[in-house]
Write a structure and sequence with these properties.
315 residues; 4-stranded mixed β-sheet; 12 strands; binds uracil
Amino acid sequence: MSAPHGLLFLSAMPRTLDPELRRALAARIRYYNEMGIYDFYRQPLSVVTEEVSAPAAGDEVEIAVSIHQPEHQPESGEEMSPRKATLVAVPRAIEENIFEVIALKPEQSVNDPVKALQIIREDLGDCTRCVLHTQGRKQIVFGVGDANAELMFVGEGPGADEDAQGEPFVGRAGQLLNNMIKAMGIERRQVYIANIVKCRPPGNRTPERDECATCSPFLMRQIAVVKPKVIVALGAVAAKTLLAMNASMMQLRGRFYEFKPAGVRSNDPEWDGCKLAVTYHPAFLLRDPRQKGEAWKDLQMVMKELGMKAPKSNT
Ligand code: URA
């Protein structure tokens, strides 16, 4: 029987996840990636069980696939929305491993991190995924710095200066961040800098949770490409989003966390995540300079981890 339109059945596959099955599934997913399909979501198997003669219950799970297609592109006489979901049935045996496989992203076949970051930037496009694109942003502020950096800083979101220049941390807070980096004995161009959200929230308001959730997968992909040894989360929004936990800055600072970017894997099997430290946001330090000493302690912890020595003038 031929599969109904939009459904792919892998039910003939063996139930155990042998390497061949895994390779076949990976190839299939690469095939989807090449067609512009990257996001897969699990959902219950109730929708299609009557339409198809699926194998015994428990053999399959369904994956809804979101397809990135230009607006107004008709398919089979039907207007498609830009992100239309179709359904893919996948053997239950691979359910546990599915996220390993589905995390394949277009940049993962590229070894040059500069090119890989470009691919992510292109994928982001002229982003309209959250409301921030309607709220006065001038441009997307993607990220800047060394694509091979050992140290990465993650802020909250662009302010007015960053929005105008298209680069993170170029305003007053950026100048302080530059001084913090210099105090560590390195230069800004040696680190990678990005934000949780890539568009300026109006009036520099804190980004909403859904905005962070919508935008942060692109940051996760940037992290998986740069493969830093240490990430410094600047402020509570960055820390809470990256760590997916709700705690005060007092609770969050002063220790390292083991960090793996959510929902994506690096194409380097040697890189299995990194350490993450939390410190105060430079904008907060501008408002309360008495906390600079505390921030310096955080950075010293990071320097020790990276085997860095501060220049003499700071010691
Ligand atoms: N504050 C941030 O969090 N990020 C920037 O890029 C600038 C200011």
